[in-house]
Amino acid sequence: MPDGASKPALKRQRPLWPWLLGAGILGGFGLLFTVGFMVLQRVNKNVTASHRAEKPLFEDRAGHRTIWKKSSYEASGPAEEPPKGVFEKVHYPSEVGSLVAYVTPDPKDGKKHPAIVWAHGGFGGIGSYFWEEASKYDDQSARAFREAGIVLMTPSWRGENDNPGRFELFYGEVNDLLAAVKHVKTLPYVDPNRVYIGGHSTGGTLTLLASTASDQFRAAFSFGGMSDGREVLYAGEGFGNTPYNSLKERESLLRSPIRYTRFIKRPTFYFEGEDNPTFIESAKKMADRAVTTEVPFQAYTLPGTHFDLLRPVTGLLARKILADTGETCNLTFTDAELRKTYDEVFPHTLGRVLTAWLTDGGDLTKALEGLDEEDAEPRTTSDVNLLKRTVDKLRDAAPGPAITAQMTALTEVCDSVTDSETYDLIVEDVLPAVQKWAKKRIAEPASFTVAASDQPGEDAQFLQVLQYLMENGETDDTRPLLVLAARQGVGPEDYAWASLFRTFSTEPKQMTLLVKELKGALPPGFAGVSLLDSANQARLKEKWKDRHPYDSEAGVARLQAWFESRDPETSSYAHSAAVGLAFLSPPFRARLLPVALAHPSEEVRMEAAWSDLKHEGATGLEVLKKACLDVNRSSTARRYLEELHHAADVPAAAKEPDFAAKATMSEWLQHPNELGAPPLSLDIHDKAELFWPPLKKKVPLWLIKYTHRAESDEEGAAKEIETNYGMVGSMTWSFFAEENASPTAGYLYVRHCALELQRQADDEEEDDDEDGAAAKTQKKKLSREEWAVEARKQLEQGNPGRSFE
Predict the structure, then answer these.
(1) How many CB atoms lie under 10 A from the CB of residue 660?
(2) Residue among 767, 768, 761 nearest 791 (CA)
(3) Cα(504)–Cα(526) distance, rounded to whole angstroms?
(4) What is the pLDDT of residues 572-619, one digit of tens each?
(5) What is the value of pTM for the model shown?
(6) Are 175 and 206 in contact (CB under 8 A)?
(7) What distance in Å separates the CA atoms of residue 740 and residue 389, rounded to the nearest whole number?
(8) How far apart are CA 478 and CA 762, in angstroms?
(9) Separation of alpha carbons 52 and 60, rounded Å
(10) How far apart are CA 167 and CA 176, in angstroms?
(11) For residue 400, with 0-12 CB atoms within 10 Å meaning exposed, 13-18 middle and 19 or more buried, which class applies?
């Protein structure tokens, strides 16, 4: 090294461990990817294999044992007796015993007729829907076949109705369907070479399974059946009544028609509405397999839903069956003829009206009015999409009465929906669009037009739209629109305000926000009373404790005006104002109490007294104590005193049994559903302590004789005074029947006892219907005279020596 040269710096050596670590991580990921890919391939191979059975259905099921579990399934009870001449109720043999069915009777024409064994939809069994009138949108009666002269058999399966066996969910029921086919072939009026099978929904699934398992019929027709059982039943909710462990994949595979596609021997046709995309996709896959395996299976998609395809397609099918007379089945279908058939049954639907309006415009309100109730109901995803587009188009239009009328008509259409899934779609997609329209309309400077004739004005129609939004949307979204409408005085006398404000009485948080956003601007007219009623109810429920909207100088002035008004059209406003006194500040309540107690209506004075006593006011207490001694006000006054913890202040005379009985009768008569006013007089006609059969014990009873003015006739004749009788002690009641002569006490007791016994029997029958008891007995319906005989018999047995003539 030359002198003066420096030593070169040592080069830093890079460590090997990071490289080794990185290589290890990459290698690990690579190994995991390879193993995961191999596992996925194996799973895919197994799933694919599981979807293609190597054996026919029954052979594949041989040796399989299902472990049953309890499910929500319930049989529908004994099958009703069908109308004579329409069906005969028969039984057919199966491997689990004799099963019930309906079959059309022998026409006695000496001919052999084609027949179809129709597998019903749903679960539980067969019933009166096979002969009762049905909507064209959901006609599960299969009536098209019997009306065409085709023999129709509608079997029930094991575990259904009152049949032997248990519910097996697409398992043993397949055997029952084929047993029904065997039975119908034995009927002397059936051509055994022209027996078909068909069914809808769950019945459509059984039809598909039977088609893969047997060739003992001419052709099969599945309406909306389940093609892929694994997809629907495995490890999920299924139909909500799975009677085995749904995690057992083998169970769902043995109930999956698509696995057995290649074993189909007879022509099999599948039909479904476009609104059920899951089943359509599975059926298309099954059709693809049918093409590959060269078996006679075809799938068709129609407009509409899972249900509305029934009437048009069964009608077409009935005509084709009648024409299918060769040695072998020659049935064919085309998409065009199916669509034509569908359109003939549904020529004027909501979808058609909306499509035409979106294309050509016009008077949408009039077009919607031209639809009947069934056709106007939204039923499909397509209907919902069209509704959304229609609302959007209306929102883009210049505001005015015509646009508001059309939006109102649309919300009426939306409100008519009965299907829960369609309802959810409307709330999710259409309702927000309606809210946007309402927000734009209420912000427009143009004022709302009011009614100039019998037709509702734009103000009333806008409130109707708000009502739809309140009832179906979120209160938080609609409340700001409601506040703007109230502050602007939109339709102040419209009754819609009652329901619009009522929602807030049960939502304390929303009531607080409503009052805050109104900023003291009380709505005029009936809208103001509706706000008062809602606030009163919210405070009465004791969940909302904020300041009452009428607890202000402006509010007190409004209440005082209502108390001082003598306009009969607004007399109820004073009643609401009297209730509201309870929720005002003490100075305001003290100022208004004398005005309220001076009101001519006893009801107003009673409410004002209640409001005062709620705050321990001496004036209110004295008013209520005095009212206790008025037979026509006593029941209400006593109830108010007891409610406000002043039961000890009820005068002794008001508690006297005879007086209390007359007071009870008077209160009942004053109900709007009865006389709607106090009676002219009340007297004790009879009193007794009797064993009362409806209650099965002794009770004190009073028969009350009362008089009242009869309703005037159409010609305005003077009202006559009538005399009637009622009873208190068991069920307070009066028949309002003018007796020719003074009736005996025994006669009246029998009449009342008969009424109560009859009502008890009716209630028990309704309870039986709701319970769906399979073994319920059919009880004879008694006439009014027969109930009277029964009541007299029981009264005489329970009260020996007493006459009830």
Answers:
(1) 18
(2) 761
(3) 16
(4) 999 999 999 999 999 999 999 999 999 999 999 999 999 999 999 999
(5) 0.81
(6) no
(7) 67
(8) 44
(9) 11
(10) 12
(11) middle
The 10 Å CB-count burial string (b at 16+, else e) for 571-607 is bbbbbbbbbbbbbbeeebbeebbebbbebeeebbbbb
Neighbours of 97 (CB within 10 A): 11
Tell me the three state secondary structure of residue 442. Answer: helix
Instruction: Round to the nearest angstrom and report the end-to-end CA distance of the chain.
Output: 147
pLDDT band at 448 (very low <50, low <70, confident <90, very high): confident
Block residue for tokens 């049960």? 506
Residues in the chain: 805
* Cα→Cα distances 433→113, 387, 463, 485, 486, Å: 56, 10, 16, 18, 22
The set of residues, in sequence order, having a beta carbon less than 8 Å from that of 729 and lying 6+ positions away, is 661, 692, 699, 700, 701, 702
Q: What is the pLDDT of residue 766?
A: 75
d(C-alpha 406, C-alpha 402), whole Å: 6
pLDDT band at 720 (very low <50, low <70, confident <90, very high): confident
In 550-647, beta strands by DSSP E: none
CB atoms within 10 A of CB 657: 13
Q: Could you read off the pLDDT of 393-407 as tens digits, one per residue? A: 999 999 999 999 999
Question: pLDDT at position 739, please?
Answer: 58
Identify whether the C-beta of residue 437 lies closer than 8 Å to the C-beta of residue 394.
yes
User: Exposed e or buried b for every residue in 47-58, given b needs 16+ CB within 10 A?
Assistant: eeebbebeebbe
Q: Alpha-carbon distance 264 to 56, whole Å?
A: 9
Task: Assess whether pLDDT exceeds 80 at residue 117.
Answer: yes
Q: Which of 129, 122, 139, 119 is nearest to 311 (CA)?
A: 139
Tokens of residue 217, six digits: 């019929």
Running DSSP on this structure, what letter comes out for residue 245?
-
For residue 198, give the nearest of 119, 273, 263 by alpha carbon.
119
Nearest Cα residue to 734 out of 670, 803, 802: 670
What lies within 8 Å, CB to CB, of 445 at 6+ separation is none
- Alpha-carbon gap, residue 687 to 21, rounded angstroms: 103
Closest CA to 135 of 337, 423, 418, 383: 418
Q: What is the dihedral of CA 319, 324, 330, 335, to 10 degrees?
A: 0
Give the rounded percent of residues in the chain with a pLDDT score beyond 70. Answer: 90
Dihedral sign, CA of 641, 642, 644, 650?
A: positive
